[in-house]
């Protein structure tokens, strides 16, 4: 295959990993699950984001994607929402996609992500969760 064409050897093992749910039940994972946003958490993230940064800064009209993401395991146990921060900024040299060897993070937006996470957590706790 691909490794042999470059004079290398490669072994891939897709054996399931063991994990535990919040209730302590043992589960076996053979693949990355889909990342599915919880509707209530998504609504909370959108509301807080719009309050903090303005309606024009937060889009909830994003085309679905099929990410293979560790976050999918987390979202199976806790209500979650994956949101994109907006660190793709070609004008600042951040033009390549995540996981590209040429990816450059636009660090100028990181403080906004931290603020939004803190805002969502504070609102969630203030509303006594779900």
What are its keywords?
single chain; 130 residues; mainly alpha; flat
Produce the secondary structure layout.
Blueprint: E1 17-20, E2 26-29, H1 39-53, H2 71-77, H3 110-126
Helix pairs in contact: 1-3
Description:
The protein is mainly α. It contains three helices and two strands, in the order ββααα. Strand 1 and strand 2 form a beta hairpin. Helix 1 packs across helix 3. The radius of gyration is 19 Å and the shape is flat. The mean pLDDT is 85.
Give a concise summary.
With 130 residues, this protein is mainly alpha-helical.
The ordered string of helix (H) and strand (E) elements is EEHHH
Helix and strand composition category: mainly alpha
- Separation of the first and last Cα atoms: 50 Å
Characterize the largest beta sheet: strand count, sense, and whether it forms a barrel: 2 strands, antiparallel
Helix content: 25-40%
Residue windows where pLDDT falls under 50 for at least 5 positions: none
Give me the count of strands. 2
């Amino acid at each position: 295959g691909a490794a042999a064409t470059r004079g290398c050897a490669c072994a891939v093992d897709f054996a399931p990993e063991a994990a535990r749910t919040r209730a302590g039940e043992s589960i076996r994972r053979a693949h990355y699950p889909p990342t599915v946003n919880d509707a209530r958490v998504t609504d909370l993230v959108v509301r807080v984001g719009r309050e903090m940064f303005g309606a024009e800064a937060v889009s909830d009209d994003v085309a679905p994607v099929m990410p293979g993401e560790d976050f999918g395991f987390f979202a199976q146990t806790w209500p979650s929402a994956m949101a994109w921060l907006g660190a793709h900024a070609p004008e600042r040299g951040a033009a390549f996609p995540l996981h590209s060897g040429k990816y450059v993070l636009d660090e100028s937006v990181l403080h906004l992500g931290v603020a939004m996470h803190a805002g969502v957590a504070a609102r969630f706790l203030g509303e006594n969760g779900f």
